[in-house]
Amino acid sequence: MIGRRRFIAAATATAGLAALPGCRRLEHLGIPVTVLRPGMEAGHALRERAPLPAARREIHTGVAILGSGIAGLSAAWRLAKEGHDDHLLVSGPEPFGNASGGRFDSPSGPLAFPRGAHYLPLPSLESTPVRELLHELGVIEADPFGPRPRFSEAALVHAPDERLYLDGAWHDGLLPTAHVGADEAAQHRRFLDRMNALAHTRGADGRRVFCVPLVLSSADPAFRRLDGITFSAWLAAEGYSAPSLRTYLDYVCRDEYGATPDKVSAWAGLHYFASRGGQAANAADGSLLTWPDGLAFLARGLAARVPATRQLAGHALAVGEDRHGVSILCTSADGPVHIRARRAICAMPLHVAARVVGNIRDYGFDPAAHLPPQAPWLVANFLLEGFPPEPADAPLAWDNVIAGSRGLGWVVSTHQLIRAARPAHTVFTAYRALADQTPQDARAWLAAASAEALFDVAAEELRGHYGPFEIWRRTLAVEISLRGHGMAVPACGSLANPGLAALREADGRLLFAHSDLSGYSVFEEAAWWGDRAGREALG
Fold this sequence. Notes:
- By secondary structure, this protein is of the alpha/beta class.
- Helix content is 29%, strand content 24%.
- Residues 1-21 have low confidence and may be disordered.
- A nine-stranded mixed sheet has the order 2-3-22-18-21-20-19-11-12. Strands 4, 5, 14, 15, 16, 17 and 23 form a seven-stranded mixed sheet that branches. The chain has a three-stranded mixed sheet with strand order 1-6-7, with no helix packed on it.
- The chain starts with 8 loop residues before the first strand and ends with a helix.
- Helix 2 crosses helix 17, helix 6 crosses helix 8 (266-274) and helix 14 packs across helix 15 (468-474).
């Protein structure tokens, strides 16, 4: 997820939040609200084809890496790890991209929070770059490439990890099998048994049918045909009609892909359940890893391994090949700069690359035909004084979800802090995939909405569950991040997308690396493509 992340941008002390760009005080509530629109201004300038400025200086480098999301950071990490010091990482308009995080300076001390993705599943055996990084960072403590590594207890999500609000009460887990009728419970078990079987199924080519990274999945046509129908159609054909199961799967698709099951391919819907299979020596199968500021912890770890002298704050405006290599016009703090590189790695989202790489069609990618749908997101962080009351028999969990809600629940940034008593302040992070509108309508709304309107949507679940007065009296500040192109949606035909295949196979002076190459947005896919591009750039 953004599914389910500088360079940490810090919100200043609560009293000074109103001085930040995009921040205003909701007068009727007395709450300072900061609205961030990362990349929007730069993206709109590209869309409107603003005149390109003249460069003020020139930089020569062996490899230029354009974008410091997880793919760009992974490429730079690989180059640095292999001893290649002639490279330059250009941060892009938002350092760390969907893995960015922030901080409130609360009255009791700093509190970190995610602005995007907030967890990582136990990595699959095939996700070798992720395992290598986790071992370097001390998250994997032993046997990093074995079937059951040992993970740091501090990173494994502590209990209670997930709870679901259904029929007026909280229940452990997100699929309420023990709290529905016998017929519905039987469908739950049948579905989970089917997913477990698929997780161990191999195609005619000997590969696992569903794998992370996606490109290592089986190409067996008997299973690839699932890319041609929606997940909703597959569920109906297989007789999965139980309302509680369908509600759960709707949540999963919105959480993982930013879209509902009728917009996601059946292959992608099944891939979520059957692909990773990560295990641990000291945790249950299916456990998750998290940190207070989500995947920003991992992004910082990658960035720390890239020398500061090899990083440039700015973003690409134009990229093209010439007889000398790759020519790149970038913004920077000192004005426009012209970068000449022997090779370059385009680690930008494809909707940005389509406007920056002037001849991208020459690489086999036609944006009009091949660009995956892009799901808009809203991520809101609430700095709270104390905690709202909870039932004695259903304590607050790390992830808290309301069945059937338009939102995706909220995670608690202080959940992993090991202490005898609750902290005086905490941060609740509320997620919302705007899947109840078309992406175009949702983006238009995000661009035009007032702080009040954004706050109303961001706070909808918290106010509805705890009551508006309870949330109002505890909230000291709110930060809302708007992601108009939050993630690629794996719609029908994603696996057979020839444009994505062409960019994946590009092996000239300009290479491509981004989770968009897999047709959906998760850490492991971005790390795979970044690591691969870094290795190829060494050649």
